[in-house]
Design brief:
The protein is built from 16 helices and 26 strands. It is an alpha/beta fold and 556 residues long. The chain has three domains: 88 residues, Beta-grasp domain (Ubiquitin-like (UB roll)), CATH 3.10.20.30; 165 residues, Nucleotidyltransferase, domain 5, CATH 3.30.420; 269 residues. The strands form six sheets. It has a six-stranded mixed beta sheet, sandwiched between helices. The chain has a six-stranded mixed beta sheet with strand order 25-24-15-16-17-26, sandwiched between helices. Strands 2-1-5-3-4 form a five-stranded mixed beta sheet. The termini are far apart. Helices cover 29% and strands 27% of the residues. Helix 7 packs across helix 14, helix 7 packs across helix 15 and helix 11 packs across helix 16.
Length: 556
């Protein structure tokens, strides 16, 4: 049976089959709603207000929201099912992100890709290809865009001199479906309809980012002759509308090699004669974002031993030794993106990003104010802290209050507790009730699994090139996670080996830098295509050394 759900704001009416959750309905409406547990009723963030048609709250809802809130009509969208016509309100999309991440250093250009053949007529050169643009109104612009799992970051670029005219940073609205890639793939392969919902969410995110750029700079789509996009393999499959099945099971999807599309190939605001540039992906789980990063850091040219790491659901790893390159992807899960953690949160306002101890615990919170969750970098920082003050044992066990008495600083003893039957460490306890922010024993186990996979992936890839960690001269860490995490925390927690100490470089948004280069340096895409074809892809599934290293590095 089909019912109607009226949604505020927007006065939208969505038809929904009986038994569908309100989270499904809100996602189909196009509105953003935060949900980092992939609809499992754990994170408590997908709160909606039900004005009519509310069913009795579930026990899990009352536990998370409180009886007073559920009596007032608040519900968790992921567990509330449609059983009649309903009217609901979704919190306004008011999340504001900080500016675009710092770019990695840009190599000196040797050839500019835009040229004028006569007044007002232009040709844009991408690698060996030429795109005749015809007449383009001033200013002639391009857009560099990093389509990330969590955020969409973009730059509006003056194509005549390479200057940046505007920047934008938006949430990727696919987050409402799942914060990590694995949960999105699982959702998308259930039906073509689900796959299209994912695609539309991505397009809405990109369109919002571009509209902000246009508004800030006072330009129109007719001014944009090229849109350069970098992203991981899932993002590119979603963008192009490709089947996601090959990302979920063997045989895995082949590399993505199409790097130049006409502007009408995708429904994006680009000049009618313009083009869309995509970075090639060398493997099923090693994406164009890694290739773009390698180009931006000049890691595609021969050089001393270096490591490039982009930590996420699938942690992408590049190792260079002379004229040889190994790329691989370690299955690190969603722990570093806030998923799989009881109080995990995206790196948005309210998230703890760093923890320190002097005589008391000091928290760094995005936006200041009270914390309501812990970001990926915050979890690494917290685990490092707990190990240093002996609250956590080397095998990852959080001490009980009785065990810790006399062993840990008295000022943190009160933070040791038992929550939902497991030992936990409290970070923040609201004065007027509400949900505490804490790290539980199960969270630590999830963290150990994730960090063990990354460390094992690194050491397995290094071994392929007969390198020890001590042989490496530079270790580049990219992305938002890399920007927020401390080198010592990476080493103390065992994510990185001790041999990397003093070598870690926070590289900024290398994927966005690579996209920018493809707009202002003709040879960027020639280098990208050449590099994508010559790297060796190491598959960790079934690799004996990876399995041994994974078990070895589970403990701290």
């Amino acid at each position: 049976m089909t019912f109607t759900v009226k949604i505020h704001p927007g006065e939208m009416e969505i038809d929904a089959e009986e038994g569908h959750t309100l989270l499904d309905v809100v996602i189909r409406s196009g509105l953003f709603i935060e949900s980092i547990c992939s609809g499992r009723g754990l994170c408590g963030r997908c709160i909606v207000s039900v004005q009519s048609g509310a069913s009795s709250p579930l026990e899990a809802e009352e536990k998370i929201l409180g009886k007073e809130a559920t009596t007032a009509g608040l519900r968790l969208a992921c567990v509330t099912k449609v059983a009649t016509d309903m009217e609901i309100s979704v919190p306004a999309d008011t999340i504001r992100l900080a500016g675009v991440a710092e770019l990695s250093p840009v190599p000196e250009r040797t050839s500019f890709p835009l040229s004028s053949i006569e007044e007002g007529n232009y040709v844009f050169k991408v690698g060996e290809s030429r795109v005749f643009l015809g007449r383009v109104p001033d200013p002639v612009c391009g857009v560099a865009l990093d389509a990330g799992t969590t955020t969409i970051e973009s730059l509006l670029v003056d194509m005549k001199d390479g200057s940046i005219k505007a920047e934008s940073r938006e949430l990727n609205r696919q987050i409402s479906i799942g914060t990590d890639i694995i949960s999105r793939i699982s959702y998308g392969i259930k039906s073509d309809g689900n796959r299209e919902i994912l695609r539309k969410a991505l397009f809405r995110s990109i369109e919002k980012s571009l509209s902000d750029l246009f508004r800030f700079a006072g330009v129109k789509r007719e001014n944009v002759v090229a849109l350069a996009i970098s992203g991981n393999v899932f993002i590119m499959h979603s963008l192009l509308g490709k089947s996601l099945t090959g990302l979920a099971k063997f045989p895995f999807s082949p590399p993505l090699t199409d790097t130049l599309l006409l502007s009408d190939s995708l429904p994006l605001p680009v000049h009618g004669s313009g083009c869309i540039i995509l970075y090639p992906a060398p493997g099923a789980f090693v994406g164009g974002d890694l290739v773009a990063g390698a180009i931006s850091l000049s890691l595609d040219v021969e050089g001393t031993p270096a490591v490039f790491v982009d930590i996420g659901t699938n942690t992408e790893i590049l190792i260079r030794k002379g004229d040889r390159w190994i790329v691989t992807s370690a299955p690190s899960g969603g722990a570093f993106e806030g998923a799989e953690m009881k109080c995990g949160k995206l790196a948005i306002p309210g998230a703890v990003t760093n923890c320190e101890y002097d005589t008391e615990i000091v928290l760094q919170v995005i936006g200041g104010g009270e914390p309501d969750g812990i970001s990926g970098s915050g979890i690494v920082s917290l685990v490092c802290l707990l190990l240093s003050i002996k609250v956590m044992t080397p095998d990852g066990r959080i001490l009980s209050p009785a065990e810790a008495r006399g062993l840990v600083p008295p000022s943190v003893l009160w933070r040791l507790s038992e929550i939902d039957g497991e030992n936990a460490f409290l970070l923040y306890l609201p004065e007027r009730g509400g949900r505490p922010v804490y790290l539980g024993q199960g969270d630590v186990r999830n963290f150990q699994t994730a960090k063990g996979a990354i460390r094992a992936g690194l050491e397995t890839a290094l071994a392929e090139l007969d390198l020890a960690p001590e042989d490496v001269e530079s270790v580049y860490v990219s992305g938002a996670f890399g920007r927020g995490v401390d080198e010592e925390a990476l080493i103390v927690t065992g994510i990185f080996p001790p041999g990397f100490r003093g070598k870690v470089i926070k590289a900024g948004n290398t994927a966005l830098s690579g996209a920018y280069l493809s707009l202002v340096m003709r040879e960027a895409m020639m280098r990208a295509e050449d590099f994508s074809g010559k790297v060796s892809v190491l598959h960790l599934g079934g690799n004996r050394l990876f399995s041994e290293k994974f078990i070895e590095h589970m403990n701290f």
